[in-house]
Each structure stands twice: as C-alpha cells, then as structure tokens.
C-alpha cells in the first residue's frame, strides 16, 4: 500500500465543528484522501463502528482510513505512537509518530512517520519546541521513510514551507476539525499542496490541477444515526484538553 501524502486529516470528535461525520465528509469533498482515526477514549466496539462508518465515507473516493494504535479495527492501516509497540505489528500500512532523530532512528518496518510540532499548535499548546521548516528539513534528511509534517499547519504558506522542506505531505487536525467550512479549507490546503509539488505548472500559467468538485458529498449518516451519536454531532461538545495528537 502506498504511504500517505498530500493532506492527511487527524480526527478529534470533541472539537469537530458540527460533528465528526460532517467534518470528515467535508474534508473528503475538498480533496482529502487519508484520515487517521484517533478517538482513543472510546470503547473498542464504538471505535470499530466509527471506523467502519468513516471507511464508508472514504470508500466513495478511494480514500484510506488509518487507525491510531496497534489495533486496525478490522482494517489494514495503523498509526502508532512513538512509545511503541516495538517491533511494529505487521499490516499493509504502518506509520508512527516521531518528534526527533532518535525516534526516527528506531523505525524498522514502518512505511511512513509524522513529525511534530512544526509550528505551535492550538491542539497541544506549549508542546515543542516547534521544529520550524529548518528543523523539519533536517528530520526529512535523517529519516528512512517519508514524513508528514504535523502541528500548527493551518495556511497555504505553511503547506508550501513543509513541502519545500521535503515533507511528503501535511497532517492536519485543528485547522479542519474547527473549520467553518471543512470542504473549503481542505480544498485550499490540497490546492497549496498541488502547487508546491508541481510549481512549474503554475509558473508556466498552465491549468492548475483541479480540486475535487465542491458538489461531491460522500454519504453521511443523518442525525440520530449511530455515527451521529459517536461523533458528538448535535450535542454540546465537552470542554477538555484534546487527546494526544497521535
């Protein structure tokens, strides 16, 4: 399975504006094709059901759901924390969260890794220090696998800086989870990624890669469904610090 690239969405149902189902469907409509399901506080059965629902949204566009933790929840892609397990379990696609060179040097059979935080992040305030583009570039040069830049990536300028530093893509939580219009925000970020990886097309004035049709809306369970209940849609969101990003 090909490692993730482009814009990768990390979930947090407790800060998702309007519910997790709405945010994921909007992000997919805006061009996102990779989603990491977190929600580690949920019981396994609820988390597995949520994973199945999100896979259904992604299936309409050939997208992939990765599950945070060693349990793939009946799928075949997992994203592991820096703390373990080691060695990583065998799956078709395995990623790991890393933050420095020593963690990157521990990688063995993983297919990709995230590195964070690149910039200060609202999700984990005070976490760092931020790598910045220069720190990201050094980790890219030291890494045996493709890297996704995570933490504080919110603008097209952030995306461009990460790709120019050598990242294979960017991982986004807050900028999409809290977006007023997730489809528009995702389209803006995915367009910035496309321009960063193919600048000659834009400099030459050629037609830019088309963003997914704004009218594309993957099937989303209606309010009152099981996904609505699990995603928190339609009910006040608890006030708490969010989970660890990965």
Number of strands: 8
User: What is the CATH architecture term?
Assistant: Alpha-Beta Barrel
Low-pLDDT stretches are: 207-226, 233-245
What's the CATH class label? Answer: Alpha Beta
Helix content: 25-40%
Strand arrangement in the largest pleated sheet:
1-2-3-4-5-6-7-8
Helical element count?
Answer: 9
Please summarize the sheet with the most strands: 8 strands, parallel, barrel
> Based on CA inertia axes, which overall geometry fits?
globular
Q: Indicate the multimeric state.
A: single chain
Encode the helix/strand succession as letters: EHEHEEEHEHEHEHHHH
The CATH topology name reads TIM Barrel
Report the mean per-residue pLDDT as an integer. Answer: 86
Number of domains: 1
| Structural class assignment | alpha/beta
Report on the architecture of this protein.
- The chain is of the alpha/beta class and 246 residues long.
- It has one domain: TIM Barrel (Alpha-Beta Barrel).
- It is 33% helix and 15% strand.
- It contains nine helices and eight strands.
- An eight-stranded parallel barrel has the order 1-2-3-4-5-6-7-8, surrounded by four helices.
- Strand 1 (6-10), helix 1 and strand 2 (34-37) form a beta-alpha-beta unit.
- Helix 1 (20-29) runs parallel beside helix 7.
- The longest helix has 16 residues, at 44-59.
- It is globular, with a radius of gyration of 17 Å.
- Mean pLDDT is 86; it is low at 207-226 and 233-245.
């Amino acid at each position: 399975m090909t490692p993730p690239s482009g814009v990768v969405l990390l979930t947090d149902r407790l800060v998702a504006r309007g519910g997790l189902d709405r945010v994921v469907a909007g992000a997919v409509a805006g061009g996102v094709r990779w989603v990491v399901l977190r929600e580690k506080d949920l019981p396994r059965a609820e988390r597995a059901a949520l994973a199945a629902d999100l896979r259904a949204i992604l299936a309409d566009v050939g997208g992939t759901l990765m599950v945070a933790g060693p349990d793939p929840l009946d799928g075949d892609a997992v994203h592991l924390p820096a703390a373990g397990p080691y060695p990583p379990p065998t799956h078709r696609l395995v990623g790991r969260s890393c933050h420095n060179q020593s963690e990157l040097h521990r990688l063995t059979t993983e297919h990709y890794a995230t590195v964070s935080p690149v910039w200060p992040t609202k999700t984990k305030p005070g976490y760092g220090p931020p790598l910045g583009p220069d720190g990201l570039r050094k980790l890219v040069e030291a890494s045996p696998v493709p890297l996704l830049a995570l933490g504080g990536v919110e603008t097209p300028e952030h995306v461009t800086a990460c790709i120019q530093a050598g990242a294979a893509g960017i991982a986004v939580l807050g900028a999409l989870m809290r977006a007023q219009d997730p489809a528009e925000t995702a389209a803006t970020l995915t367009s910035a990624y496309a321009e960063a990886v193919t600048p000659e097309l834009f400099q030459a004035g050629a037609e830019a890669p088309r963003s997914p049709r704004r009218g594309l809306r993957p099937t989303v369970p209606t309010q009152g469904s099981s996904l609505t209940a699990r995603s928190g849609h339609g009910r006040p969101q608890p006030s708490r610090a969010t989970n660890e990003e990965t």
